[in-house]
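Recall that a protein's primary structure is simply its ordered list of amino acids. Everything else, from secondary elements to tertiary packing, is in principle encoded there. The following example makes that idea concrete.
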Amino acid sequence: MIERPASVEPLTWGVVANVSRETFTRQQTDTKRPGTRHFVPGAKVWVLPIVWGDGGDQRHVVGTRRRSGGRSLIRLVMNTDRLVNYRVRPVWSPAVYAAMGQPLNGGSGLPMYSSKEDAQQAADVRKWLRTRETHLGLALNGEMSAMHNADETCEFCDGRDAALAGAGEDANPHPFPGTESEHSVDWWSTDHGMWRCGWLAERHRGFPFRIDDLGVRHIALLRRRLSRDAAWLARVSAGRTAAELESDGISRARLRLVRGDHPLRPLDGVVHAWLDDGDRVVRTQFC
């Protein structure tokens, strides 16, 4: 592996993400295939700064077009709920840099992140919206916002899965927060706090009143309700076709159809429904 000299500065700093493996796109034949029309599942794309007033629900991205052998870059607008694991990376490639700054409809080029810190802030905001707000929202708002994708890195889900596997609280791999006030929202939203929150909410799922923190106790109680709702939805979805389920208007926040046999991490309140070649549900999973 060739290392770049420390004295060489990148062309700019950017935010990268991956196309979620939960993403499927309908084709002209009315069938669906993994990924999007232009990107394969797991593809890395560069996510440009927000230029609209929709809060970033759609963003310009730059990535390698599928079936191009890694040789064709494309820039397009993409729904951000199809992207996971935002992180900051330096831009070294002149081709990527040029694609990012290409003028829009003959006008001026799109904005880029002004610094590494600017890019990091954008990635941190996305992390908060997709994982922190999703889980902590149960305590703050009494309801859960749209659940993140199964392949999104989430410390709450890591803690929950550790509790399911029988691990103790000392298995928390993240350092104890040193600056945030203990048990504040800022404290719980750290990597350590999110892991501990997920562990507590699962470890005491059957007896939530053993949890001292009222916010985490509330999360544990509401997770029980979400699980009951998901169990009912899984029962009524079994054996039905994708067309029948879609006609019922069940939102993706509650039901996600899966094509193929790849495993997915269970998600609170979400039913994953695997389809056979006839688009009929043959297996479900929920948490």
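The beta strands are 12-19, 24-26, 32-34, 44-47, 58-64, 73-79, 83-91, 255-259, 271-275, 281-285. The chain has three domains: 12-114, 132-229, 234-285.
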